[in-house]
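In this section we walk through a basic example: taking a raw amino acid sequence and producing a predicted 3D structure, encoded as discrete structure tokens. The instruction is simple. Fold the sequence below.
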Amino acid sequence: MKVVRSDDHLKHFPKGELAGGLFVRPFECPERWQHIMDRLGTRGFQDHVEPADLDIGPVRQIHDAGFLEFLETSWDRWVAEGYEGEILATCFPARRMQVRKPEQIDGLVGYYALAVETAITSGTWEAAQASAAIAQTAQRIVAGGARSAFALCRPPGHHAAKDMYGGYCFLNNAAIAAQMFLNDGAGRVAILDPDFHHGNGTQDIFYDREDVLFLSLHGAPEHAFPHFLGYEDETGAGKGEGFTANYAMPPGTGYDKWGSAMDDAIKRIEAYSPDALVVSLGVDTFERDPISFFKLKSDDFTDYGGRIAKLKLPTLFCMEGGYAVEEIGVNTVNVLEGFENG
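The resulting token sequence is shown next.
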């Protein structure tokens, strides 16, 4: 399995995030990437490639033009305004407010942000572009005939909606890759999202479409971020009705219940009969992850990687979450090995 990676992820590393009423070191940190790289090397995943330059065309098919302009220019506008810290949202168009696009940068940040934990830094736009380019390069590998590829994306992407960033995500790497499969002639693509947190951004992008089946296994939004999307009665709209499936599970969920949800998702993918599969690979379902409440053990990741392999589909893995930093490499590579041996 080829691994697509880039050191450009280092250009994005905020000084802190808001969590539990405190300003703490971000859970989404560069060490996550390094632990995965180290484990890939230890387990023989040595075929690494650098990404080609970003093709902005598919990105524009997924994301709003004004949103992309905001991501590209926000840092310069922030500095020009005289602000000295990193960009964090301080206000939002909350209930009963008008959702009008402000001109001043502080208001504009709140217009495009979906949460306050995610900071924008001087290098965020470059890192986000590199992350999307990684997904694009990995997609080309799979579209070119490879059984699978692993896009080691950082920053992650599945919380990035058509015109919103947050949850550590800026560009939706998995959605961009899925669109590229369609552009290459695929009639249908499935996106399977086993990250602990609901893939609200991916759902938002494809909610009214029938050419992408989106399935998310996640912590019930009554108890888990992003809180305001991911309920099981969200099944799509218009032509997309029936092409979104949410498996929302309560605190303490172990592998028996989680695995049953995965089996059901796999059956739905089989019935959909897609031409390609994109996996938003988050491993924050791990029992010791600091910002989740599922109870998967390391061996469980190997097992479900094997279950995904039984679909026998061209498969692209895009890295998403996972914040038990010491174990993230083991758990991520276990999925890949389970798939390779499945």
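Looking at the output, two observations stand out. Residues 2-63+122-341 form a domain with the Arginase; Chain A fold (CATH 3.40.800.20). The first helix runs from residue 30 to 42. In the next section we compare this with other chains.
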